[in-house]
């Protein structure tokens, strides 16, 4: 799904977000990963493609959203797990420890998810962006306990997430029913 880069805008108005998303898709050769309303009356648009196309698309979305823009991000060389986890399409395989990270910013969650999978041998199960979460986002990942802890530690140190992480939990040997509920 990922072609090289991921871009995202978060807009404080659903109609303005839809309009900005349309402008983004028309501005450059990008693939739509997700576009939908999120809690607190916001709208997000997530795209992938070549770095220059994603940058152009996000810039167009920012300009179209104007004063309604809440946040945006472009991640060059995004790990392919990130866009797949946003739409819950990752093949996870065997589940080791479970890590769960909750953030107050949707764009920061995407940035943290990319850092997490690049920091250690972990797999993303899901990156949930603001639906039914009061405007929050969360990341669910799996791997060996040490790898999950290391990946989260690296993400916590990111400038982009300072003050935006709400809660972090690492569960060694999760109960199979909890694992099934997460899939």
Task: Write up this protein.
The protein has 183 residues and is α+β, with helices and mostly antiparallel strands. The protein is 37% helix and 33% strand. It folds into 2 domains: 5-76, BMC (bacterial microcompartment) domain (Alpha-Beta Plaits), CATH 3.30.70; 81-182, Alpha-Beta Plaits, CATH 3.30.70. The protein has helices at 14-27, 51-65, 81-86, 106-119, 145-156, 176-182; strands spanning 5-11, 31-38, 42-49, 69-76, 97-103, 122-129, 137-143, 165-171. Strand 2 and strand 3 (42-49) form a beta hairpin. Helix 1 runs antiparallel to helix 2 (51-65). The longest helix has 15 residues, at 51-65. It is globular. It starts with a strand and ends with a helix. The model has no long low-confidence stretch (mean pLDDT 91).
Strand order of the largest sheet: 2-3-1-4
The CATH top-level class label of the largest domain: Alpha Beta
What radius of gyration results from the CA coordinates?
Answer: 16 Å
Proper CATH architecture of the largest domain: 2-Layer Sandwich
Integer average pLDDT: 91
Q: Report how far apart the termini are.
A: 19 Å
Q: Helix segment count?
A: 6
What is the total domain count?
2
Main sheet?
4 strands, antiparallel
Helix content: 25-40%
Strand elements, count: 8
- Class from secondary-structure proportions: alpha+beta
Note the run of SSEs as H and E. EHEEHEHEHEEHEH
CATH topology of the largest domain: Alpha-Beta Plaits
The residue ranges in which pLDDT falls below 50 over 5 or more consecutive positions are none
Percent of residues in beta strands?
25-35%
CATH superfamily of the largest domain: BMC (bacterial microcompartment) domain
Overall shape: globular
């Amino acid at each position: 799904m990922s072609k090289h880069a991921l871009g995202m805008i978060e807009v404080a108005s659903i109609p303005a977000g839809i309009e900005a998303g349309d402008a983004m898709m028309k501005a450059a050769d990008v693939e739509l990963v997700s576009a939908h309303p999120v809690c607190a009356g916001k709208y997000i648009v997530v795209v992938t493609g070549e770095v220059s196309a994603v940058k152009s698309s996000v810039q167009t979305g920012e300009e179209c959203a104007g004063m309604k823009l809440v946040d945006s991000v472009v991640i060059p060389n995004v790990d392919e797990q990130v866009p797949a986890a946003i739409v819950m399409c990752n093949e996870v395989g065997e589940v080791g420890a479970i890590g769960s990270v909750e953030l107050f910013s949707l764009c920061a969650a995407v940035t943290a998810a990319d850092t997490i999978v690049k920091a250690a041998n972990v797999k993303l199960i899901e990156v949930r962006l603001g639906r039914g979460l009061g405007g929050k986002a969360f990341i669910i990942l799996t791997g060996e306990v040490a790898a999950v802890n290391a990946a989260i530690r690296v993400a916590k140190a990111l400038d982009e997430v300072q003050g935006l992480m709400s809660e972090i939990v690492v569960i060694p040997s999760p109960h199979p029913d909890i694992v099934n509920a997460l899939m």
